[in-house]
Amino acid sequence: LIGMGCCVVAGVFFGTNYLPLKQVDCGDGFFFAAAMSLGILAVGAVVNFALSSGPLYESAEFYPLAMLGGMSWMLGNLMTPTI
Question: What tens digit of pLDDT does each residue of 22-32 get?
Answer without folding.
Answer: 787 777 777 77
